[in-house]
Amino acid sequence: MNQPRIAFLGSRHPGAAQALASLIAAHGQHEPADADVICALGGDGFMLQTLHRHGSLGKPVFGMKLGSVGFLMNQYRGEGLVERLQAAEPAMLRPLEMTAVTESGASVHSLAYNEVSLLRQTRQAAHLRIQLNERDKLELLVCDGILVATPAGSTAYNFSAHGPILPLGSSVIALTPIAAFRPRRWRGAILRADTEIRLQVLDPDKRPVSATADSHEVREVVEVVIRSSQRHSVTLLFDPEHNLEERILNEQFLT
Description:
The structure is a single chain. The protein has a 6-stranded antiparallel beta sheet with strand order 6-5-16-13-8-9, with no helix packed on it. A 6-stranded antiparallel beta sheet has the order 12-11-10-7-14-15, with no helix packed on it. Strands 1-2-3-17-4 form a 5-stranded mixed beta sheet, with helices on both faces. Helices cover 17% and strands 39% of the residues. With 255 residues, it is of the alpha+beta class. The protein starts with 5 loop residues before the first strand and ends with a helix. The protein has helices at residues 14-27, 44-54, 81-87, 157-160, 244-251; strands at residues 6-10, 37-42, 61-65, 89-93, 96-102, 107-112, 115-120, 126-132, 135-143, 145-149, 172-178, 189-192, 197-202, 209-213, 216-218, 221-228, 234-238. GO terms for molecular function: ATP binding; metal ion binding; NAD binding; NAD+ kinase activity. This is NAD kinase. It is found in: Cytoplasm. It is an enzyme of class 2 (transferase).
């Protein structure tokens, strides 16, 4: 059985450093650019950090849970890693591309594998206009914020905001308001993944808004454009009994 070249990366979780040293001793260590596979040790936050740092390399990523939340991770076991990698099932994820324009006129670009969220910065509710493919769909949304979630991220912040869980590979994204005040009955929308979403901040001086792509925050935005990326993708590897598609399905039946 051939030994794959593995790049081991560990979070700051207390158990990750010990696991990292043990796995490197057993399998060796390679730089991510030279590896066949990246093995991330931590929680979902560290997995997202790994994807942002190394996703452009095109290397598959196998995560093992050594953190507080591990929806995107496999269970940690120190033994049998090579066999697990060979039996792992791939899941391809396409991130969202965010372009945020600030009050100063700066344009900031970022990727989001989970979601892009807009949130009010002060006690004042946000006033937003929603355009889809350059057509007005909602002239005024009064809310604490709004988010756009990928299928992989639909079980996270999106679900907590009462948004829908999206099947993996469904080629749709979720547009979900956060504490909408007007219109009260609007609960969001499920959109085709190729939809261009433009969110305009009304009265930004009085009602400032920030935009966050996963963990990358941009303050005092006036407009945010979001679309599913056609240029970027990453491949996550999962144990057959814990594949991501099955996890997303099971989330819809939790009581």
